[in-house]
Amino acid sequence: MNENANSNQQPSTSAATAAARTVLVTGGTGKTGRRVAERLTALGHTARIGSRTAPVPFDWNDDTTWDAALDGVTAAYLAYAPDLAFPGAVETVGAFARHAAKAGVERLVLLSGRGEESAQAAEAAVARAGTGWTVVRCSWFSQNFSESFFLDAVLAGELALPTGTAVEPFVDTDDIADVAVAALTEDGHDGEVYEVTGPRLLSFADAAAELSAATGREIRFTPITVEECREMLAALGLPGDFADLFTLILDGRNACLADGVRRALGREPRDFADFARDAAASGVWNV
User: Fold this and answer.
1) In angstroms, rounded to a whole number, what is the distance separating the alpha carbons of residues 150 and 154?
2) Which residues pair with 223 in a beta bridge?
3) CB-based burial label for 235 (10 Å; 0-12, 13-18, 19+)
4) H helices within the chain, ranges in order?
5) pLDDT at residue 68, as a whole number
6) How far from 104 is each of 65, 75, 99, 111, 199, CA to CA, in Å?
7) Consecutive 10-residue runs of the chain (287 residues): their mean pLDDT?
8) Nearest 5°: phi and psi at 226?
9) What is the pTM of this model?
């Protein structure tokens, strides 16, 4: 759940020396998928973008596109849209994972979410599919503030959200991409669930303060109700169900840090302040 400049961090050199792979990157034009594809290409692998508009089209909801998208693929990054919490997601992801296994795919890396029961059901479905698998279970993306979801709100100077005082360890999507690429290209990650977070817990008011410091202008946090959020999303043409995610995963269940970045990469995750500084320098928040 969501342009700043890419991090200079890259996966470990063992990935660069691994045999070249053809990797299907579903959601390959999105926040994490785009970064995964860029890193795979830089390491000498072939990143096949999985989207409806790609040269080889892929659509989660059209299984007639799956065979061509999987042809010659040895690994796949699974980023389901709009979210694993949506109805039908578990069944679709499970069916695709089984289809991939029959097509000879050796590794699946699933982008998952913390504290979402349906996301964990999708994780289990992928684990049962018959391939090597890794789960990258993420907290909220820092880039939600610079790409898509909250970008317009930051530009307008007000984050109006139904989050109250809930805290979240926002994770940088560059860290997510580094973990995913390591799992796709290196040995030693099969069967791992990497729960990835940033290094600090912040409320959305704290995030607004960090954004204010980075941009040099005031960005306020204004608490609203879930129903008000639903109406706001509808006005933006976004599914109102996104509003329910606030109450689902910002009720305190995720108010803790995790060590997935450190376990997968051997380094600490990027801080939200670093993200905000780099995003501000890119000009994405210039008004």
Assistant:
1) 6
2) 161
3) exposed
4) 13-17, 31-42, 66-70, 89-102, 117-127, 151-156, 173-185, 204-215, 226-235, 242-249, 260-265, 272-282
5) 98
6) 16, 9, 9, 21, 38
7) 38 52 96 98 98 96 98 98 92 98 98 93 98 97 93 95 92 98 98 98 97 98 90 80 75 93 98 98 96
8) -60, -40
9) 0.90
